Amino acid sequence: MRVLFTSSPGLGHLFPMIPLAWAVRAAGHDALIATTGDGVQRSAQAGLPVVDAAPGLDVFQFFQETAKDSRFTDWGGLRKLFKEDPAKAMDLVAARFAALGDRLSEDMLVAAQGWRPDVVVFEQMDSAGPFVAAKLGIPAVQHNFGAARGIGEVAMYAKHTAAYDRHGVTRPTEAAAIINVATEGLGAPQIGWPMRYIAYNAGGELPAWLLAERERPRVCVTLGTVVGKLSGVGALRQIVDAAREMDAEFVFALGDNDLSDLGELPENVRVSGWIPLNSLLENCDAVVHHGGSGSTFTSLTAGVPQLVLPHGADQFDNAAMVRSSGIGLWIEESEVDASHLTKLLEDKEIRAACERLRAENATRPLPVDIVPKLAALVG
Predict the structure, then answer these.
(1) Which of 201, 153, 202, 203 is nearest to 297 (CA)?
(2) What InterPro entries would the database entry show (predicted)?
(3) Same domain membership, residue 223 and residue 314
(4) Rounded CA separation 160/248 (Å)
(5) What does the pLDDT average to over 48-65?
(6) Which of 27, 78, 320, 371 yields a CA-CA distance of 20 to 30 A from 328?
């Protein structure tokens, strides 16, 4: 069996599929990743073959140049729209990601015609993979990367993807199957094939201080791979102020983002370079993040209480889910203070809920258990 995995370049979209791609290879089948941007190098670093479906494409510039509604590139405006009209905001995002998928579709199709896959596995916001599958007449399986949505996404993205018209291909209305990584305790609908969320955040050297014994609690602070680039790190000013009042260590895992907006940092704030988030969270007692699915689910697998500061897209859904399931807090960034972080570290009910969902996720079928299901679709 030959499985083509397709993804936008967003690492939060690509990374959750890597464990399944490994499982496909470990079972003796062939796997190929088709993506672009950062996703190409990251796929190769994961030990997987990959093709660049849009060589030279600057994804952020693409979104800037093609956005018909300025609120898509104005993070603050998009955040406001998600609060006021989530359905309209989601359709706006779908249209832009579909345009990106359309940009990837032609080179991806050429690669697929040469490689001849038996099935396509696509992340839920990718529109190129379902098009390629429809053109080749093979099954397309949707791989969810979070709890939000899941049903109706193929049709929503297909209606904005022009490749179907260029090639005279009928638009699909649904996927052949959906891989669902959201465990029951999150309150998400249990659709499709359940699979354990395996936290993959790439590899990296772990600094000595991370594994050393420590005397005080440690809090991870991250904004993922996108938010800092779009809107800076100003949302974390309240966290810096709270850190000054607490006897705890704060690790600001913010990559290469400009931190000047945060001013002078107190002595208990450590700024780190790239550390795989799953490895970092295994050595932390709480986490503050933006609500991206990757950060939310990696925190869940580590059993770490979460404080979510959402900005846009599915982040508000994830924040609401964290709060309703009892595994953390959703606080407006302007209102966060030391009392919220203290609660995150000390509340026994939150910690018990985190352990319950961590254990629940661990009982779900592994990626290796999904491989026979893919093979059955191929026949």
Answers:
(1) 201
(2) EryCIII-like_C, EryCIII-like_N, Glycosyltransferase_28, UDP_glucos_trans
(3) yes
(4) 48
(5) 89
(6) 78
